[in-house]
Amino acid sequence: MTHPMHPDQVATPPQLVRRLVDEQFPHWADRPLTRIRHAGTDHDVHRLGDDLVVRLPVVAWATDQAELERRWLPVLAPHLPLAVPTHRATGRPDHGYPFTWSVWDWLPGRSVDGRLDDAAADALAGFRDALHAVPTDVAPPRRPHSRGGPLAELDDEVQPAIRRVGDLVDAPRTLALWAEAVQAPRWTDDVWLHGDLLPGNVLADEDRLSAVIDWGCLTTGDPAADLVAGWHLFDGPQRRRFLGDADDAAAARARGWVISQAVIALPYYRDTNPGIVAQSLRALAAVLS
Fold this sequence. Notes:
By secondary structure, the protein is α+β, with helices and mostly antiparallel strands. The protein has two domains: 14-107, 2-Layer Sandwich (Phosphorylase Kinase, domain 1), CATH 3.30.200.20; 111-288, Aminoglycoside 3'-phosphotransferase, Chain: A, domain 2 (Alpha-Beta Complex). The protein contains nine helices and ten strands. The strands form three sheets. A five-stranded antiparallel beta sheet has the order 1-2-3-5-4, with helices on both faces. β1 and β2 form a beta hairpin. The longest helix is centred in the last third of the chain and has 22 residues, at 248-269. It comes from Klenkia terrae. Residues 39-251 form the Aminoglycoside phosphotransferase domain. This is Phosphotransferase.
């Protein structure tokens, strides 16, 4: 990015990452290091050789994500039909970089973009259903205001955000759909949630979905929170295929999750992350269509 996305963003130039890796994990010092350009918002990513990736938080609120993934992905992975990241090492703060950082296996494939086909809709729906079926008896408690809770928790933030971005969206229609989502009947049982099934977090390899990455929003809660991919990745027929047997209440809440994420992101990243802005506008247009 040309400008930092966050007021307190920490820089991770390649020379710093090289020094951290070489000193803390000298057995990987001979591996080439390549910065990965992406539209993510909370980590910088550097590929380490052919089969590893270094992830470094760039803002303090993202610092607990790697530990969340390290603890729970081994529990979930055996139940899932698509690959998920495997943790290899944890690095410590040093040389002015203030956060714990991590090394993971590199998963082959490309981040999906655009509208996916029937096979992809079936594959991602199968992944979602498998994740939601994993027992939650040992799951950590949901954090307040995290993904998957009652949308009413976000109402005081979302309504003003919709009005702020009214020049970019149909604000009255968006407010009406948001109100419908907030008022929709509550779900019955909490399930495991990825919490961020957006284009950059779903990988395809040889034209088939292969992996789901970036589990920093992992939690338990409303299954509708994992239906957001329906508007981010699919057009009408494929969206209906992906949504499956979701009832009207779940679909309404899912639209609410799309709206809340998009309208909060738009003003925050408007001048610093064009990828997130474009992604948010596409999803909102799909919700409003």
